[in-house]
Amino acid sequence: MLFDLPEPAILYEALLKRDPDYDGRAYVGVSSTGIFCRLTCPARKPRPENCSFYASVGDCIQAGFRACKRCHPMAPAAEADPAVKVLLEALSERKGHRWSEPDIIRMGFDPSTVRRSFNRHFGMTFLEMARLERLRHAHLALAGGSKVIEAQLDAGFESAGAFRAAFARLMGTPPGSFTADAMIRADYIDTPLGPMIALCDRTHLHLLEFADRKALPAELRRMHQAFKGRIGFGRHAPLDLLETQLDAYFSGRNPCFSVPLAFHGSEFTKTVWHALVEIPAGETRSYSQIAGTIGRPSAVRAVARANGANQIALLVPCHRVVGADGSLTGYGGGLWRKQKLIEIERQYV
Predict the structure, then answer these.
(1) Which pTM was predicted?
(2) What kind of architecture, by CATH, is found in domain 267-348?
(3) What's the CA gap between 56 and 38, in Å, rounded?
(4) Do 331 and 316 form a contact (C-beta atoms < 8 A)?
(5) Where are the alpha helices (H) located in the chain, listed in sequence order?
(6) How far apart are CA 32 and CA 305, in angstroms?
(7) Where in the chain is the domain with CATH 1.10.10.10?
(8) Residues β-bridged to residue 28
């Protein structure tokens, strides 16, 4: 029989106490690490807002979490069934491999027996687990800059729609909770300088970054925490407007954006970002000039940090900030993009 989970507060208390009564009956997924554990795990305990609780290992996997290497939540099933142990080890070793029934046969196992064993232990077949594992790696590839179609095919999805819906789960939305009315929606926008990831609600844009920005995974995790997992995949109206205005920007027709922006940062950081928005296309400013503009002439380093923490590329034009001598300085999207953006904007002077 399935175990009806108690309230999250009760489960979190059990996690803190490492209560053995819940071992094998409840698991915790930690959004800040992407890992799921037993409630008896000896690892350092996460903050309550980063915890989601599940009744089975299968639910954790479907929600996009990977097994903890300290408490080994999948170990009991592996120890109880040699076939499960061998296949789990193979799945871990052969990352990205597209598993099929002939692979299982070549390893000396009967596919129907393996199917029943995995369903009994995890609530899913081995092939379903392998597919979810590929999808998790596709998520990491997308965050690292791979194109959507490449990640989709690598994950074994022929349908882009199915891939996007499944990817939404790996962004932190538990199975069954991804709906068309998600508070925040995420989607990709192709640009001449590479794909970008955008997050918006019904009225405001919250994030716009080039997909290969190294800080993007951490930014997505912070967004996930800020909105308590209420992030879906798809579009709200501001994203359609953004795509139209980005096309006009890159094609040389119009450098202006009217998409409402939502800033997530300290008051000082927001002040810096508002100052960046005021820099006209085709012009640049130094960090010291920005510091003077906001009335904090001695806060040049703090201005630089705020500039680097910008989460809305292009619309908050941190690429228009250069060194005091006019040289290009660091840019999260890559210096080559910064150079290209400045060249694109010269026509707008």
Answers:
(1) 0.54
(2) Orthogonal Bundle (1.10)
(3) 10
(4) no
(5) 8-17, 57-62, 75-80, 82-93, 101-106, 111-122, 126-143, 148-154, 160-170, 216-226, 237-250, 267-277, 287-293, 300-308, 335-345
(6) 23
(7) 267-348
(8) 37, 53
**How far is the C-alpha of 311 from the C-alpha of 273, rounded, in Å?**
10
CATH class of 1-73: alpha beta
DSSP 173: P
CATH 3.40.10.10 residue spans of the chain: 1-73
First to last CA, the chain: 70
In 3D space, the residue among 201, 194, 198, 140 whose CA is nearest the CA of residue 167 turns out to be 140
Say if strands 35-38 and 66-67 run parallel, antiparallel, or are unpaired.
Answer: parallel
Contact 169, 155 (CB under 8 A): no
Task: Give the Cα-Cα-Cα angle 57, 153, 250 (nearest 5 degrees).
Answer: 115
Report DSSP letters for 1-25, one per residue: -PPPP--HHHHHHHHHHT-GGGTTT
DSSP 203: S
Quote the tokens at residue 41. Answer: 């795990």
* β-bridge partners, 209: 197
Residue-level pLDDT, tens digit, the chain, 349 residues: 345 688 889 999 999 999 988 888 899 988 777 789 999 999 889 988 888 888 888 878 776 678 898 898 988 877 778 888 898 888 878 876 778 889 999 999 998 998 888 887 777 788 888 877 776 666 555 444 445 545 555 555 555 566 555 555 555 444 334 444 567 888 778 788 877 889 999 899 999 988 767 777 678 777 877 877 677 767 788 988 999 999 999 988 999 999 999 999 899 999 999 999 999 999 999 999 999 999 999 999 999 999 988 999 999 999 999 888 778 877 878 888 898 899 999 988 8
Q: How many residues does the chain have?
A: 349
Q: Is 318 a catalytic residue?
A: yes
Q: Among 288, 284, 290, 285, which residue's Cα sits nearest to residue 343?
A: 284
Q: Exactly one of 37, 71, 200, 318 is catalytic; which is it?
A: 318
